């Protein structure tokens, strides 16, 4: 299965992946319309570590996902190796947030539609991209790549 991998040594901390992620999940056709005057809440987060190291955190789509195992309503499921969220089932208990060892699931805010998603996580842009997640497609340094590989989390 294709997964997102981050090459920290190539990340320059530009945060473009966050903007493209927010845009890809906005439902808008124009990036300016989608992000103008909006505090973005992307499904990928760039972190700055000591020593000038930057890296992106997103769902690793683990082989044995603790978030799915602990989801009390069945809102998180695995479909073809991708951990998906069923918004209708999610009650916002945040058990998945506490169980994710990578900090890849976050509380969400209400979108422009006014509908609230209690949580958000990367779903590899399956609903809104042309074969490659927006973060990987637009990373200027190719620090974020989308390729075949083993389980990136070892869980």
Overall body shape: globular
Strand content: 15-25%
Helical coverage, percent range: 10-25%
CATH second-level architecture: 2-Layer Sandwich
Main sheet attributes: strand count, strand direction, barrel closure = 2 strands, antiparallel
- The helix/strand series, from N terminus to C terminus, equals EHHEEHEEHEEHE
Separate helix tally: 5
DSSP summary, beta strand count: 8
Can you identify the CATH class?
Answer: Alpha Beta
CATH topology: Alpha-Beta Plaits
Cα distance spanning the termini: 16 Å
Question: Please, could you describe this protein's structure?
Answer:
The chain has 5 helices and 8 strands; from the N terminus they run βααββαββαββαβ. It has 155 residues and is of the alpha+beta class. The longest helix is centred in the N-terminal third of the chain and has 9 residues, at 16-24. The two termini are 16 Å apart. It has a two-stranded antiparallel ribbon. It has a two-stranded antiparallel ribbon with strand order 2-3. A two-stranded antiparallel sheet has the order 4-5. β2 and β3 (54-57) form a beta hairpin. The protein has helices spanning 16-24, 31-35, 66-70, 95-99, 134-137; strands at 2-6, 45-48, 54-57, 76-79, 82-85, 106-107, 119-120, 144-148. It has one domain: 2-Layer Sandwich (Alpha-Beta Plaits), CATH 3.30.70.
């Amino acid at each position: 299965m294709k997964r997102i991998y981050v090459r920290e040594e190539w990340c320059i901390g530009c945060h473009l992946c966050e903007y493209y992620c927010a845009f890809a999940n906005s439902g808008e056709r124009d990036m300016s319309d989608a992000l103008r005057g909006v505090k973005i809440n992307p499904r990928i987060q760039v972190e700055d570590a000591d020593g000038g190291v930057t890296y992106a955190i997103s769902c690793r789509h683990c082989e044995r996902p603790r978030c799915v195992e602990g989801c009390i309503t069945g809102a998180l499921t695995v479909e073809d190796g991708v951990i998906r969220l069923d918004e209708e089932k999610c009650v916002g208990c945040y058990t998945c947030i506490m169980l994710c060892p990578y900090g890849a699931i976050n509380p969400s805010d209400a979108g422009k539609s006014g509908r609230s998603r209690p949580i958000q996580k990367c779903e590899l842009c399956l609903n809104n991209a042309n074969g490659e997640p927006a973060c990987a497609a637009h990373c200027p340094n190719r620090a974020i790549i989308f390729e075949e590989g083993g389980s990136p989390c070892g869980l």
